[in-house]
Amino acid sequence: QFSSYRKLKGNTKPILHADDLGLTQATNSAIIDLAKAGVLNSSSLIVNGSAVNEAVSEWMKQDKILPAMHFTLTEGKSITSKNEIKNLVDREGRLNCSFLKLLLLSFLPRKLSYRKQLECELRRELIAQINIYKKLLNTNRIELDGHQHIHLIPIVLDIIIEINKEEQIKWIRTVSEPLPTNLSLQLWNTILFNGGFIKWIILQ
Q1: For the segment 106-155, what is each residue's pLDDT rounded down to a tens digit?
Q2: How far apart are CA 153 and CA 103, in angstroms?
Q3: CA distances (Å), 165 to each of 80, 93, 135, 140, 149, in order?
Q4: Mean pLDDT computed over 69-93
C-alpha cells in the first residue's frame, strides 16, 4: 500500500535503507555516520548481533527514525534455547538455516510431522526476536525485513502473516523490484556467480 501510494503521487525516489545495524561495531559506525549525514532514510536492527546494545544506544541519539527489525535465521546465536529449536541451530546454538535449506523445506507437505515441528520452532525464534526488539526499543510496533531475505521464503512468510496482528507487524519488506540496469560487467559477474541473479528470480 505504501509503495502504491508513492507511485500514485509520482514520488518514486528510492528509500535508502541499511541492513545489519547491531551486527558488529564497524557496521554500526558506518550506518550511524550515514544517518547523521542525512543520507539514510531507515535501517534495520539485527537483535542477535554482537554489538546490538551499542547500536540501539547510538541510533536513538540521532532521534530521527526508528529502525525496522532485521529477522535472521542464517547466522548468530539464537535467542531461543537451542534445545527448543534443534532443527534451526548447530551444537553451539548458532542459527544455521540457509536460504536454500528454508526454500526446500517450504515444499514439504503441510501435514508432515517434521514440517509442523519446524514451523513451531520458527515461530518460537521469530517471536523471541520480536520480543527482544520491542524491549530494546521500547515499542510495540514492528516493521520487518529479513537477513538475506529469509522472511520472504514461504515457510517463514506464512508464520509472519499468521502472527502479524498479535505482534503488531505493520510493514514487511518485499522485493517487487525491476532487474538492475546500468551495472558494470564486473558487477554482473559477481551477481551471476554468487547466486544473486537466481535468488532475484526466485524472490520475484
Answers
A1: 999 999 999 999 999 999 999 999 999 999 999 999 999 999 999 999 99
A2: 6
A3: 22, 29, 18, 11, 21
A4: 96
Task: List residues bridging with 45 in a β-sheet.
Answer: 21, 69
Cα–Cα dist 102/73, whole Å:
9
Distant-in-sequence, close-in-space partners of 150: CB < 8 Å, separation ≥ 6: 71, 72, 73, 74, 97, 99, 102, 156
List the grid coordinates of 72.
535472521
Cα-based distances in Å from 117 to 90, 93, 190: 17, 18, 37
Residue 94 φ then ψ, to 5°: -90, 135
Q: Please tell me what DSSP assigns to residue 148.
A: G
Rounded to an integer, what distance in angstroms lies between the CA atom of residue 145 and that of residue 151? 6
Residue 119 phi, psi (nearest 5): -60, -40
Q: What is the 3-state secondary structure (H, E, C) of 18-72?
A: EEEECCCHHHHHHHHHHHHCCCCCEEEECCCCCCHHHHHHHHHHHCCCCCEEEEC
CA distance 41 to 143: 14
Region at 76 (left for phi over 0; alpha for psi -120 to 50; beta for the rest): left
Cα separation of 67 and 49, whole Å?
14
Q: How many CB atoms lie within 10 A of CB 21?
A: 28
Find out whether 71 and 49 touch, Cβ atoms under 8 Å. Answer: no
